[in-house]
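Hi U.,

Before I forget, here's the chain from the pilot set. I'm dumping it here mostly so it's searchable later in email.
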Amino acid sequence: MNYKTFLINLDRSKQRLADAKTQLDALNIPFERVSAADGSNLTESERACFDQARAQKRYHYDLTWGEVGCYLSHIRCWQRIVDEQLDYAIILEDDLHLSDDFVKIPSVLEQLESNWSFIKLGNPFKSRQETPVEKQGGFSLVSYDKAPSGTCAQVVSYEAAKRLLASRSNFFRPVDVDLQWQWEVPIKVLGLTPYVAGHNLSFASEIQQIEQRKDKQKRRWVRLREQLRFYYHSKLRGE
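Structure:
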């Protein structure tokens, strides 16, 4: 299959790049660096991708510019998948820790019999209910009651990239939260366990260094309404 490994990295984050490169080189994995969108230095057109009006109706705070930059960085990777007509790409963020089993992922993907479009390779935050779909090469392909947050490592197919680009030229949620609303994106998010990627805890969040999420004014009633909306749609889809 025609694929690449993309590493999202801010131009000013030299140490993160060096650390990620050391890990990938040790596993003999070629990768291409994707220059991340810097939330502290976005263009007007990049800022305009954040749909503030929709956020005020559908999300419980206005995104920080760091979160906007993170979303735009993933869009850059999706665009490259489509432009280069890749079967898929493994997309990594630079504050990650890889296990030795990361090298097995391409082989396992080729063996999978189930249809897939987006696969999480890490879940560094809250655990989610997982339902086994298929076992291959010592790994389990799983579905979720609710996709895990975080985007440290994932596999994105050509079809998924096309759908994501078509539905999210403008966005109003953080990218990892948006992926949980699978019927809106629309893609099916699966996972591959045991996970082969996690967060490198020696690095502080660059997103939060630009603006603090906690300082944003919260819309509690919007959050409650959206939680109910999510629950309703999940039950409707049998998830």
